[in-house]
Automatic annotation (TrEMBL):
Ranges for domain HTH deoR-type: 15-70
Domain of life: Bacteria
Organism annotation: Tessaracoccus flavescens
Name of the featured protein: Alkaline phosphatase
Keyword annotations from UniProtKB, A to Z: Transcription, Transcription regulation
């Protein structure tokens, strides 16, 4: 008989879920008090301190004078593996929308965003497709599928993103003439897409320039986040795919900024 009792706070599954919940809460608000985290998680103060220490070691949060601040908002980005675990159902639904527009025997440029990995998974009936990417996570996702041809862009490996960046990556992209491109953004403001890192922005911009049809995957959490570097306007994308949790007001705002929007239902 399957055990349906709640996981103990110290159990690995409970720890992992709590880490994601704490990180997401702090990332959304920028800064949260430790007392608020204790209240939200329902665990002891000591357990919350241990969770924060783990997230500090991962480079996602920092603690100072009773406040926990996000390092992945604005000037920093969460690690690739952490982002892979976030909002998987949402990313899956959005990826299905994008995949419906991909035609067989086409080329698909995918950036270092984890959303692109879910697009590859959704390409079941759209192959053969040539995937062009700087993301090693995306590259690994194509392994073992004979209908997915892979072209990995060269460059300087960045462990936090598990991807290749830099002048060599841009040089490779300058020689690419692609059919489709899937991009994500860390933040949005006044109809422009933003990301915290300049070298990532350069690759996103080069991918957009190299593709004929451009898709932006943008979940509701990005609508209120900010980052440093702009890389595109919403008008440049053929389709902006948002999740079901995106408010009607936010969708209307995107449309006012010139975007063609499709809401992904689960």
């Amino acid at each position: 008989m399957k055990d349906t009792s709640p996981a103990r706070p110290g159990a690995p599954g409970a720890q992992r879920a709590r880490h994601f919940a704490i990180a997401e809460l702090v990332l959304q608000h920028g800064s949260v008090s430790i007392d608020e985290l204790v209240e939200q998680t329902g665990v002891s103060l000591m357990t919350v301190y241990r969770d924060i220490a783990t997230l500090e070691e991962a480079g996602l949060l920092q603690r100072h004078r009773g406040k926990v601040t996000a390092l992945a908002t604005g000037l920093h980005e969460a690690s690739a593996m952490f982002r892979m675990e976030q909002q998987q159902g949402t990313k899956r639904a959005m990826a299905e929308v994008v995949a419906r527009h991909i035609t067989p025997r086409s080329s698909l440029l995918i950036d270092d965003s984890t959303s692109g990995v879910f697009v590859i998974r959704a390409l079941r009936d759209r192959t053969p497709v040539t995937v062009v990417t700087n993301s090693l996570l995306a590259a690994q996702e194509t392994a073992g599928d004979p209908d997915l041809n892979l072209f990995v862009l060269g460059g300087s490996y960045q462990g936090w993103a598990n991807s290749m960046l830099g002048p060599t990556t841009l040089s490779n992209l300058a020689d690419i003439d692609g059919d489709f491109c899937v991009i994500s953004a860390s933040g949005l403001a006044h109809g422009r897409c933003y990301h915290p890192y300049e070298d990532v922005v350069a690759v996103k911009r080069a991918m957009l320039d190299a593709a004929r049809t451009k898709f932006l995957m943008l979940d509701h959490t990005k609508m209120t986040r900010r980052a440093l570097h702009a890389f595109a306007t919403l008008e440049e994308f053929d389709l902006v795919v948002v999740d079901l949790q995106t408010s009607a007001e936010a969708v209307e705002q995107l449309q006012e900024w010139g975007a063609t929007v499709e809401v992904a239902a689960p």
